[in-house]
Amino acid sequence: MRRLARVALLCLGCAVCSLLYGLSQLALSLEQEPGGGGGRERQAREPATAGARRQAGSAGRDAAGSGRCKNLSVSFWNSYWMLPSDVCGMNCFWEAAFRYDYMKTHPSEKMHLAVVACGERLEETVTMLRSAIIFSIKPLHFHIFAEDQLHESFKDILEEFPYEGRVNYTIYPITFPSESAAEWKKLFKPCASQRLFLPLILKNVDSLLYVDTDILFLRPVDDIWSFLGKFNSTQIAAMAPEHEEPRIGWYNRFARHPYYGVTGINSGVMLMNMTRIRRKYFKNDMTPVRLQWGEILMPLLKKYKLNITWGDQDLLNIMFFHNPESLYVFPCQWNYRPDHCIYGSNCKAAEEEGIFILHGNRGVYHDDKQPTFRAVYEAIKNYSFGDDLVHSMLQPLERELRKTTHTYCGRVYKVFIKQLTKSIRDLYARRSKGT
Ligand SMILES: *[C@@H]1O[C@H](CO)[C@@H](O)[C@H](O)[C@H]1NC(C)=O
Ligand SMILES: *[C@@H]1O[C@H](CO)[C@@H](O)[C@H](O)[C@H]1NC(C)=O
Ligand SMILES: *[C@@H]1O[C@H](CO)[C@@H](O)[C@H](O)[C@H]1NC(C)=O
Ligand SMILES: *[C@@H]1O[C@H](CO)[C@@H](O)[C@H](O)[C@H]1NC(C)=O
Ligand SMILES: *[C@@H]1O[C@H](CO)[C@@H](O)[C@H](O)[C@H]1NC(C)=O
Ligand SMILES: *[C@@H]1O[C@H](CO)[C@@H](O)[C@H](O)[C@H]1NC(C)=O
After folding, report:
1. Concatenated DSSP letters for 147-207?
2. Which of 23, 66, 213, 257 has a CA positioned 20 to 30 A from the CA of residue 319?
3. What is the DSSP string of 388-406?
């Protein structure tokens, strides 16, 4: 009797298994139906492009599986069993695996943008990313380093962005070399020194544009990216000067450590060829031997800990003081800060051509001290993707800017919209040509 029960149990087990198998086959065949079959075949032959498939779907080229799949960008940190039910888990699983490979084998085909967001910086970071998406031409990959409690919010917001197959993103936790994590974290603002470690963390990325969260792009990221191609054989990174006017410069008046050039450099917009950074041996004032990036950071911090004020930016200044041939300096309109106008306009390049990248440091997007900066921030934050840029962004912005002419920065409010106007015109010209 007991044996019979065992046999029956075994049969039941087999039946359940075959039912499951049958259902999964059915699901697969459904996925392959109208238009889906081609997609699956292509995916098998050409795995590297699988990731683009769902995003490409929105461009209408390949609507494979659009009935069953959401048009989501899925970072490889989403484990496939945690995806929403209407995303094809199987595809995402392979996609994630292949995407990782793809980044290794095609390192420089797209532009990589990194940002480090901690504390209350979610909205500001998202506004920065929006400004990058609005104007950029080549595909972008965002590398977002954020405190754990912000990850979900970033995912939710980024999944709502209209990508048109142009943007991917990856969200990372904040990490430091374990033996010195505590020391790095307390240096400067929480997490800010993370950027020093980007060449060591993003080992498979060739080049990277790092920006602070309080950056706004007023022209395509492609344009600053193109500086990489202008590097001579010794240059590894590009930044803007900290000041144009030495009389109000900080480093030349107060620094108790070496700094680059006449007024130092600002690290809020930092373009890096990380392949070169990882290869270079840096001259330094600690040992007669040259040290690599990974070896130099901790000794540098130890030596200058008591003398630095602006944290990791000071360390970069010290590093490029000793290795000046490695830095490409771009003009102030690529990193335009309140310092460039609060005591009168001193960024000549911006007066001529307008501001290319706005950097609202010292919290000026969120208080009433510099209403010109705040107005630009709000114009981009208020804008809904897809609306007309002239009517929904440029015109309301100009109206707001005209109200600020009682301030020093407001007096030159035209430099805040000069390039923006041109970027919008160029964007619509590209669209009407259909490129
Ligand atoms: C995905 O893209 C296709 C093709 O443009 C579209 O028809 C479909 O509605 C989109 N699905 C979602 C969930 O957005
Ligand atoms: C996103 O990543 C996948 C896999 O690496 C790639 O195939 C796809 O082209 C990327 N999309 C964009 C817009 O870069
Ligand atoms: C730190 O600043 C003090 C005071 O200016 C100076 O004497 C000292 O040499 C500085 N230390 C380093 C490592 O530069
Ligand atoms: C970065 O430098 C490496 C080594 O010199 C070079 O092969 C690569 O093309 C450079 N990347 C870019 C984007 O210029
Ligand atoms: C590259 O440019 C920097 C800055 O202008 C300069 O100091 C360096 O000597 C140049 N390197 C070469 C190899 O010409
Ligand atoms: C943005 O929206 C807020 C609230 O709706 C409004 O007060 C502000 O004037 C807008 N700013 C711009 C520049 O459009």
Report:
1. -GGGHHHHHHHHHHS--TT-EEEEEE-----GGGHHHHHHSSSTTGGGGGGHHHH-TT-SE
2. 213
3. -HIIIIIHHHHHHHHTTTT
pLDDT the model gives residue 8: 72
Distance (angstroms) between ligand 3 centre and the Cα of 249 equals 19
Q: What was the pLDDT predicted at 73?
A: 42
CA distances, 243 to each of 133, 250, 253, 378 (Å) = 29, 8, 12, 26
In the chain, what are the domain boundaries? Answer: 45-58+72-106, 107-330, 340-433
User: CA–CA separation, 27 vs 382, rounded Å?
Assistant: 42
pLDDT of amino acid 43: 37
Residues whose CB falls within 8 Å of the CB of residue 119, separated by 6 or more in sequence, listed in order: 147, 190
The alpha carbon of 299 and the centre of ligand 3 are apart by a number of angstroms equal to: 15
| Nearest residue to 376 via CA among 412, 332, 430 | 412
- The residues lining ligand 4, judged by C-beta closer than 6 Å to any ligand atom, are 108, 206-207, 228-229, 273, 275-276
Contacts 24+ apart (CB under 8 A), 65-68: 65/31, 65/35, 65/36, 65/39, 65/91, 68/30, 68/31
Q: What is the pLDDT at residue 56?
A: 37
Helices (H) and strands (E) in the chain, counts: 19, 11
Low-confidence ranges of the chain (pLDDT < 50): 31-108
Report the CATH number of the 107-330 domain.
Answer: 3.90.550.10
Distance, CA of 62 to CA of 52 (rounded, Å): 10
Write down the pLDDT at residue 23: 58
User: Which among 57, 249, 62 is positioned nearest to 163, based on CA atoms?
Assistant: 57
Quickly count: other Cβ atoms within 10 Å of residue 49's Cβ.
Answer: 14
**R_g of the chain, CA atoms, integer Å:** 25
Q: Which two tokens stand for residue 371?
A: 């209403």
Return the pLDDT at 14: 64
State which H helix or E strand residue 268 sits in.
Answer: strand 265-273
pLDDT at site 164: 72
Say how many C-beta atoms besides its own lie within 10 A of residue 106's C-beta: 12
For residue 138, the CA-to-ligand 4 centroid distance in Å is 17
Atom of ligand 5 lying closest to residue 235 CA: 1
pLDDT for res 384: 94
Entry pTM: 0.75
